[in-house]
Structures are given as C-alpha cells and as structure tokens.
C-alpha cells in the first residue's frame, strides 16, 4: 500500500470559523506547483480522502480535478482527529491501494509518526501543501516506511 499524506494549502484566517477557512491565492498556487512537479507519481492514486473542513476540501479538489479521482469526505480527518482511527479505516481498503489523504496538523504529523515510528511523540513537522509518501505492506504502527517527500 502506498499512502500520500498531504497537509492542506495555505489558508486565510478571514473566516467566521476555523471550519470555513478557505485557501489563499498563494495556497492554490503552491498546491498546484506541488502537483505539477510530482504529477507522474501522483497519477498512481486510486482514492482521495479529505477532511470536511473547507481548506482541505479545496486542496483535495485541486488534486481531484487534475487526477480525475473523486474526493471522499471523511469527518474523522479533522485537526484533532485520532491517527489510530485512520489506520483502522485504511485497513478496510485493498492492500494495493494508493491513497491520498488531505488533512491538517497536528493529525497528519502524528499519523506519519505513528506509521513510521510506532508512536506520535516525534510528529512530522509539515509545511502547508507538503505531501509525505509512505509505503507499507500492512498499515499498522511502526510498519510504514517514508519513501518520499513532496515539498512546496
């Protein structure tokens, strides 16, 4: 299984709530740049999961439009979500799946740490629009291996 774990693009703070924050023009452009530089690798993605917060959905839509893969909204991918829950959900997928997850800090950093280190104590310090690529035969704590990092 190959996992592409993305943090949403740069978001505005000019919104009535955290949930409604949208991407800035820079957030759109930087995310598109990450996509363009890594499009050949990203074309292998079968499934896109996104948080239900606006900035993550807008980021996921950029990937969806180019890759022609529908976005599946997952309410458990919020910033304060549980990385163990993501593992549980991923285990329901076929082992050959290539999945893009678009979410938030601290969840994405903790999830990468849990998969690769077996704990969440050294969470990956994500930039906005960054994607970490992890390969694992079995998606369980400590069994993942980081094989790539698409930086903005």
Description:
It is globular, with a radius of gyration of 14 Å. With about 150 residues, the chain is α/β, with parallel strands linked by helices. The mean pLDDT is about 95. The longest helix is centred in the middle third of the chain and has 14 residues. It contains five helices and six strands; from the N terminus they run E-H-H-E-H-E-H-E-H-E-E. The two termini are about 25 Å apart. Strands 3-2-4-1-5-6 form a six-stranded mixed β-sheet, with helices on both faces. Helix content is about 35%, strand content about 20%. The protein has one domain: Phosphoglycerate mutase-like (Rossmann fold).
Q: Proportion of β residues?
A: 15-25%
- SS class: alpha/beta
Give the count of structural domains. 1
The CATH topology is what?
Rossmann fold
> Would you count the extended β strands for me?
6
Given this structure, which CATH class is correct?
A: Alpha Beta
Q: Total helix count?
A: 5
Termini separation comes to 24 Å
Low-confidence stretches: none
Short key terms for the protein model shown above:
152 residues; alpha/beta; Rossmann fold; six-stranded mixed β-sheet; 5 helices; 33% helix
Task: Give a brief outline of the structure.
The chain is 33% helix and 20% strand. The mean pLDDT is 97.
SSE inventory with pairings:
Layout: E1 2-7, H1 25-37, H2 39-42, E2 47-50, H3 54-67, E3 71-73, H4 83-90, E4 98-103, H5 107-117, E5 131-135, E6 145-150
Parallel strand pairs: 1-4, 2-3, 2-4
Antiparallel strand pairs: 1-5, 5-6
Helix pairs in contact: 1-3, 4-5
